[in-house]
């Protein structure tokens, strides 16, 4: 369970909060709009009684956050009376209640999209959320079951024949007592949601009235441009952003912690709410006793402001749609930084990966092949060039300026490493050690993987290889399997028998110590020198 809000604009029934309840197994979802948080306790008790009667199964466990709307004397007494186990997530750990948190955001994003597409008034957000929940319960959300939440919960297929697009035109019958002979017999409205206790729809028209009609009077279209004498002005994009802004604020600022206070810490003087004791060694800081940084209400906002200020100072730009996405461009390179709670995800786009470059300017292939042939001689003693040269050698049929530039980079690298080579000590042991690895779909043209391996006799490197696999692998495990055994039907059983007999020992090697990475992917100078 989770409660989010308040929404800036009240609904038709003056609701401001959304209570979301998700079944952990089927992911079936119930939503209830409330006027205040105080209504949550009464509705939860009513809902638990209703759901146990309808489904004829007991509720064993409930998981919520640690807010007072879920942790109070009234609910605790009811849980103890009926034998329900109540689990609460740890403070500042929303990921422990991630199922309902993700469903909250999914419903809000869907409702926001529906309101924008239908050009509907903002106060219809409650109906949009209910419609989004209704349709998602009848859509497959967990692929491993291959069934909809409705089918998992009720053990029968849902009826989808009456589903309609949010905002579709509706024509309810005008049954007014003062209807004249020449007056219109039907009103024009838009479909907004499904009736919860009736086999009917709820629609909205320009007058502040909600109708419930049968499925036969809804068209397949969406609301057209208004033609009345007082034109309807749809809300701006910023209005829809402001509508659900408190929900996203709640994601960045969870409810206050109920954990015991931690020892005193030093925090920035601009962020302290009360007077404290001045530290003589830190004139720009003060002590705040019995409050740690995560106990302060504005801590997450402060952390986000400091982080965003730092990223912007490093030439990052903040996303216009998602304020937690930061982008930095450097010519054709693109670096993305995505912030989620206290986690940061980095991603980058490197357009200089070699491919066929079909639109590039072709060059003299004989000159390119001569450069590749010259470099191939060096692979007998320069294992650090093996992967780069083999990568460039794949495009000898139609080389372009892009490929030529990559070859020139190899020559430039050679200029600075002319004294590098192999060292063979005379007192090395004769133990044979092999490293094998493979990337996953590294080839930009065929999406095939590259196998790499090298063999040591004692401390002496005696053999190495880097080769593109002959078939595409659908997973990194399959690619490494092919790298370890080229002919699976023969070499796999050969290795298996020797492992069972104790002749060969297989070990897992972390990326930090995997020497075969040198022959499967492009590495930086620091990694090669190590």
TrEMBL record:
Molecular function via GO: hydrolase activity; metal ion binding; nucleic acid binding
Domain Integrase catalytic: 1-157
Family annotation (Pfam families): rve (PF00665), RVT_2 (PF07727), SH3_retrovirus (PF25597)
SUPFAM superfamilies: DNA/RNA polymerases, Ribonuclease H-like
Organism field: Tanacetum cinerariifolium (Dalmatian daisy)
GO BP terms: DNA integration
PROSITE patterns on file: INTEGRASE
Name of the protein in question: Integrase, catalytic region, zinc finger, CCHC-type, peptidase aspartic, catalytic
Keywords attached to this entry: Hydrolase, Metal-binding
């Amino acid at each position: 369970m989770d409660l989010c809000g308040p929404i800036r604009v009240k609904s038709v029934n003056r609701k401001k909060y959304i209570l979301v309840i998700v079944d952990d197994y089927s992911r079936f979802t119930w939503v209830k709009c409330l006027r205040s948080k105080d209504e949550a306790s009464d509705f939860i008790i009513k809902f638990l009684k209703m759901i146990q009667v309808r489904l004829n199964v007991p509720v064993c466990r409930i998981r919520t956050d640690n807010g007072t709307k879920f942790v109070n004397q009234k609910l605790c007494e009811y849980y103890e009376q009926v034998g329900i186990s109540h689990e609460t997530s740890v403070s500042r750990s929303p990921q422990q209640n991630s199922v309902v948190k993700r469903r909250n955001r999914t419903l809000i994003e869907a409702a926001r999209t529906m309101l924008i597409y239908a050009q509907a008034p903002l106060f219809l957000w409650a109906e949009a959320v209910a419609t989004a929940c209704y349709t998602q319960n009848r859509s497959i959300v967990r692929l491993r079951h291959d069934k909809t939440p409705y089918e998992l919960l009720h053990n029968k297929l849902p009826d989808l024949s009456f589903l309609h697009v949010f905002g579709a035109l509706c024509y309810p019958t005008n049954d007014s007592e003062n209807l004249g002979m020449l007056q219109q017999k039907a009103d024009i409205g838009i479909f907004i949601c499904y009736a919860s206790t009736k086999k009917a729809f709820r629609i909205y028209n320009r007058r502040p009235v909600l109708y419930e009609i049968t499925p036969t009077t809804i068209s397949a279209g969406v609301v057209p441009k208004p033609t009345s004498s007082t034109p309807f002005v749809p809300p701006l994009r910023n209005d829809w952003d402001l509508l659900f802004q408190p929900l996203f604020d709640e994601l960045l600022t969870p409810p206050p912690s109920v954990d015991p206070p931690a020892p005193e810490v030093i925090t920035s003087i601009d962020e302290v709410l009360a007077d404290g004791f001045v530290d003589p060694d830190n004139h720009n800081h003060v002590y705040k006793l019995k409050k740690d940084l995560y106990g302060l209400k504005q801590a997450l906002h402060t952390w986000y402001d400091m982080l965003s200020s730092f990223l912007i100072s490093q030439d990052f730009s903040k996303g216009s749609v998602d304020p937690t996405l930061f982008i930095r461009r450097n010519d054709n390179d693109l670096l993305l930084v995505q912030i989620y709670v206290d986690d940061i995800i980095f991603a980058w786009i490197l357009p200089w990966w070699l491919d066929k470059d079909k639109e590039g300017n072709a060059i003299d292939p004989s000159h390119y092949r001569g450069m590749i042939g010259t470099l191939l001689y060096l692979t007998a003693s320069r294992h650090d060039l093996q992967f780069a040269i083999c990568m460039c050698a794949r495009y000898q049929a139609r080389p372009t300026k892009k490929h030529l530039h990559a070859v020139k980079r190899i020559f430039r690298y050679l200029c600075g490493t002319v004294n590098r080579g192999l060292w063979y000590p005379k007192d090395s042991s004769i133990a044979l050690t092999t490293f094998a690895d493979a990337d996953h779909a590294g080839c930009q043209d065929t999406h095939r993987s590259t196998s790499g391996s090298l063999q040591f006799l004692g401390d002496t490197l005696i053999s190495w290889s880097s080769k593109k696999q002959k078939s595409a692998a659908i997973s990194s495990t399959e690619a490494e399997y092919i790298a370890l055994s080229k002919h699976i039907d023969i070499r796999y059983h050969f290795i298996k028998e020797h492992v069972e007999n104790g002749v060969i020992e297989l070990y897992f090697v972390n990326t930090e110590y995997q020497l075969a990475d040198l022959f499967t992917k492009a590495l930086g100078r620091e990694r090669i020198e190590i």
